[in-house]
């Protein structure tokens, strides 16, 4: 469903737009397009005086999975946010160890302290960090909007299922341009 409006206190949450993840082979949208749209959203939110949250991941939660995690030590700059986001001193930075940006972080407290009632979510990967963050935002009572041209995945099928089936049940979805237009 197209985005109908943005609450007066809406925050942008950009998930895992960091060097190690933005450099991975993703589809259906190229990482450069997702990063570019994320950067456009960040600039528009800053101009509107609204909070920008930049999320990165530095590890994984412990536990067994059927899919092996890639071994070895990641490059030193793996978790660094991509420079295109033009990180500003007023931006909220959240470092996470799990898929979602709310679990075991101060994100909810940061947003509530700013009286935020809605989040716009974008980033990589759609079916992992973005969907997990959107689910948790919904469960925390925030209105949720996802910028569909500012998300991509490691797998085009999981991206499609997230965008077409899951995310519309958690909130509204629309393009970067439409969301920026709603900022007025």
Automatic annotation (TrEMBL):
Cell cycle recorded as keyword: no
SUPFAM superfamilies, per the entry: Isochorismatase-like hydrolases (SSF52499)
Signal peptide residues on this chain, from the entry's feature table: none
Location of the Isochorismatase-like domain: 10-176
Highest classification ranks of the organism: Bacteria, Bacillati, Actinomycetota, Actinomycetes, Kitasatosporales
Domain of life where this protein originates: Bacteria
InterPro entries cross-referenced by the UniProt entry: Isochorismatase-like_dom (IPR000868), Isochorismatase-like_hydrls (IPR050272), Isochorismatase-like_sf (IPR036380)
PANTHER family per the UniProt record, alphabetical: ISOCHORISMATASE FAMILY PROTEIN YECD, PEROXYUREIDOACRYLATE/UREIDOACRYLATE AMIDOHYDROLASE-RELATED
Organism of this sequence: Streptantibioticus parmotrematis
Protein name per UniProt: Isochorismatase family protein
Keywords: Hydrolase
Listed Gene3D superfamilies: Isochorismatase-like
